[in-house]
Design brief:
The chain has 314 residues and is of the alpha/beta class. The chain contains 10 helices and 15 strands. The chain folds into 2 domains: 214 residues, Rossmann fold (3-Layer(aba) Sandwich); 92 residues. A hairpin with a 3-residue loop joins β1 and β2. The radius of gyration is 22 Å and the shape is globular.
Amino acid sequence: MLLEIQNVSKIYKGKVKANDDISLSAAEGEVFGLLGPNGAGKTTLVNQIVGLTVPTSGGISISGINVVANPGYARQACSFQAQTQAPISGLSSIQAIELVGQIRGGKKADVHKRAMELIEKLEMGEWQKTLGLTISGGVRRLVAFCMAAVVPGRIVILDEPTNDVDPLRRRMLWQEVQALSKQGSTVLLVTHNILEAERVVDRLAIIDQGKVKGMGTPASLKESEGDNMRLELMLEPKAAEPSLPEYLKKPIIINRRILGEVKPADISNAMAWARGLKEGGTIEEFSLSPATLEDVYVRLVKNPNGNGNHGKEA
C-alpha cells in the first residue's frame, strides 16, 4: 500500500481525542474516501498525513517512509487542496495554478500546458485572468483543485473539493478526480457528501468522533443492510411526526426526514401507509428504494448532520 496509517490517535489538551486509534491504507491509483460529519476528525487526520500536525501516538508512512519523522517527505509526496479557501486574492486564476505547479518542481512550459488543460476541462476560461479577489467561492474552489492537480503528488488530498461548486462543474471535477487516479496518483477524498462519494470512490472509511466506524467498498458496506428496502418520507414543514408502524424497522428521524427499513413482505403495506400520509397532508413526498451508502452512514454515525442537531431513533 502507498499510504499506511497505523493506530493513529491525536489528543488535544490531554483529553480531547480528535483521532482515536485510526488504521487504514490506500493503494497507488486508488480513490479512497474519508466520509463523516463535520468535526469527525477527518481534517485532523489529513493534517497529520502532510506533517502539519504530529500524532499523539501511532504511525503514518508513505512508500514505506515514516512521515511523522520525515514531514518534509510527506509535503513532497502530497499535493493538497485544503478545506479553507486558498489565499489567491492578488493573483489571477492562471497565475495561482502555475505558481504552485512551478513550486512543486514542474517545468514552466509543462505547467502552463497542464494548467490550460485543467481550465478547459472545468470550463473556467472566463475566469482565467480574473483576480482571486473578485471571483466567487465556487470558482475559488475550482482554482484550488487545479493548484493541487497541476503537478499532482503521489497522493492528492482533496478536502471538501466541491463546496460551493455548481452542479455542472462538480461533475467535471469528479471526472478529473478519476483521471488523477488513472494517471497513478492515490486520491484521498475528504467529504461529507455521501451521494457524490458513493459514485467516485473505490473504497472509503466512515469516521465519526475520531473513530473508524466502517470501511470497505460502497457495495460491501451496503451489503450489511441486507435485502430490506429503504423507505424515506419528507414531512410537510409544520406537520407533526406520524405514528410509525411496527414493520418500519430501525426508524431514524433527521429534521423533517423519516428513514426506515421495510422487509420485502411488508412493501405493499408500507406503500399504502405512505400514500395515505401524502393524501392527508402529513408528508410532501416519499420514496422506496434499495439500501444506499447513506443508510449505512446514518446507521453508523451518531451525528449524521455534523452540526449538533443529532438524528434520533424513533
